[in-house]
Amino acid sequence: MMVMRSAIRFLSLISVFAAALALSGCLTQQRTQGYDISEDNLAQVRPGVSKQLVEFVMGSPQSKNTFGDEEAYYYVETKIEQTAFGLKSVKERTVVAVYFDKKDRVIDKAVYSLADGRVVETVSRKTPGFGQDRSFVEQLLGSLSF
């Protein structure tokens, strides 16, 4: 009898755990930010095609850059997973760079992933100024001469 009760308790605990696990999958949402870059669109962007065709196939670029006589278009696709509690995590990022010559023809393209990126550390040091850091009242009293 005691074995039967503990088996029922164990099975009910497993069923509660399985239900919680199934519901946790419903609490996350995946979405794409930026462009939806497909393999078909990337295949159409090849050396020699015009800038107008690239804009027609890929859309307006998210960012442009000019290097001398050459110009580059950048398209960024980011796949994000968000929990019901508002926590976001980047699952995948793809950056497509399309390079044009001075005749507005594609000379090259590059596809970068999240693994190609680098984390850049920011430095929070302050550059020291000349003189002392004084409050507004100290500056006001310092400007008065008695």
UniProtKB/TrEMBL annotation:
Q: What keywords is this UniProt entry annotated with?
A: Cell outer membrane, Membrane, Signal
Pfam families for the chain: BamE
The answer to whether the entry has keyword Protein biosynthesis is no
**Which InterPro entries does the UniProt entry name for this protein?**
BamE, BamE-like, BamE_dom
Write down the PROSITE patterns for this protein, in alphabetical order: PROKAR_LIPOPROTEIN (PS51257)
Tagged with keyword Membrane: yes
Record's signal peptide: 1-22
Q: What residue stretches are annotated with the Outer membrane protein assembly factor BamE domain?
A: 34-107
Q: What is this protein called?
A: Outer membrane protein assembly factor BamE
Name the source organism: Maritalea porphyrae
Give the taxonomic lineage as stored in the record.
Answer: Bacteria, Pseudomonadati, Pseudomonadota, Alphaproteobacteria, Hyphomicrobiales
